[in-house]
Amino acid sequence: MRIRTDDEVYRVDAVWLGPPKATFPWRARYVAWGVGIPVFLVVLAVERQLGFGFGFFSTAWAFVITILITRMITAKISHERPLGAVMTMWLRELQTPREKTSGEGGAVTATKIRVRNERPLPKHKRHLAAAGSHPHHQPARPRGARTSAPR
User: Fold this and answer.
1) Percentage of residues of the chain with pLDDT beyond 70
2) Where is this region: Disordered (predicted)?
């Protein structure tokens, strides 16, 4: 026994061929009309923002651009992947966090490092040298040296 699926029903595109007794010479799905009209209005608005006037050639180019954009969009949608799902997927793809491809900062260089002519003193000698300028301070004695001679 063979079970038939309902795939044939979905393979038939809902196509509007035009008004009765005056059909268009092309086939366009309903979804293509629904996508194409707003795309055409957006393309016209972008042309106006770019400074193109409203004339025959600018409108003709807007129509050609609309057809190309609509064909690209409708190629991605079907009955299994409707326009709403494609738009949601597109928005989530744009908003997802990305891995940083470049590191923070740049190459390590020594251009900002100051170099002194003298070698710095050790910490305990720096403290003594700073205190040595005081008039009542005695110079430091070496480690292990006795304070006085043995009696």
Assistant:
1) 70
2) 97-151
Dist CA 54 CA 97 (whole Å): 41
- Can you tell me which residue has the tokens 């744009």? 94
Residue 21 falls in which region: left (phi positive, over 0), alpha (psi -120 to 50) or beta: left
- Provide the 10 A C-beta neighbour count for residue 10: 11
Q: Please name the amino acid found at residue 4.
A: R
Measured in residues, the chain has a length of 151
First to last CA, the chain: 122
Q: Are 43 and 66 in contact (CB under 8 A)?
A: yes
SS3 29: strand
Of 45, 84, 42, 50, the C-alpha closest to 66 is: 42
| pTM of the shown model | 0.50
**Mean of the pLDDT values across residues 9-17?**
63
